[in-house]
Amino acid sequence: MRLVAFLRAVNVGGRVVRMDRLKKLFEDAGFANVETFIASGNVIFDAGTKKLAAIERAIEKQLHDALGYEVHTFVRTCAELRNVAAHKAFAAAAIDAATAFNVAFVGNPLDAKAKKALMTLKTTLDDFHVSGREIYWLSKAKQSESKISNAVFEKTLGCRSTVRGINTIRKMAEKHGS
Fold first, then answer.
1. Beta-bridge mates of residue 36
2. What is the DSSP letter of 140?
3. Could you give the CA distance from residue 155 to residue 147 in angstroms, rounded to a whole number?
4. If you ran DSSP here, which 8-state letter would residue 159 be given?
5. Is the full-model pTM beyond 0.85?
């Protein structure tokens, strides 16, 4: 089964992992046909099981053992990746008026309490939409000027997340979404 892993804490905050090393770590964990996509912790690979939670834990253990720190992992099937890229979270006019359009990946769908907490972050600059295990984030502010970040999501929601730009997701889906 072809899968995509979105890794948190790879090549940020002074922690640098070369993509050839990351690829080897995935291969050493037993995954096949491993590819990386840009140097921000996106890995495409084949796995022999459909148990995504078990795959996430295996990757996290392998990376923790090799790198010495936690790397939270969010695995999606290629079909899920395609659906994330195609999802119409906001009106076209809102997207055109935005400066940034990102997707945050979380481990499990948000419950009603977490969704309500997320919506308290909504402002005239930042808007959110939840679908499944993804949070779509549209911002009229430059990301460096926004008060929203992955850390804010994690604190507000009480769960781990990792954020990618929609253009990266769409390029990955175009290449690997079949």
1. 43
2. S
3. 13
4. S
5. yes
Instruction: Give domain limits for the chain.
Output: 2-80, 84-176
The backbone torsions φ and ψ at residue 112, rounded to the nearest 5 degrees and listed phi first, read -60, -40
What tens digit of pLDDT does each residue of 72-92 get? Answer: 999 999 999 999 999 999 999
CATH value of 84-176 in 1.10.10, 3.30.70, 2.60.40, 1.10.150? 3.30.70
Could you give the C-alpha distances from 22 to 47, 48, 176, in angstroms and in order? 16, 19, 18
**Rounded distance, CA 139 to CA 110, Å?**
21
Cβ atoms of 103 and 169 within 8 Å: the answer is yes
In CATH terms, the superfamily for domain 2-80 is SP0830-like domains (3.30.70.1280)
Per-residue model confidence as pLDDT tens digits over 15-41: 788 899 999 999 999 999 999 998 889
CB count, 10 Å around CB of 157? 20
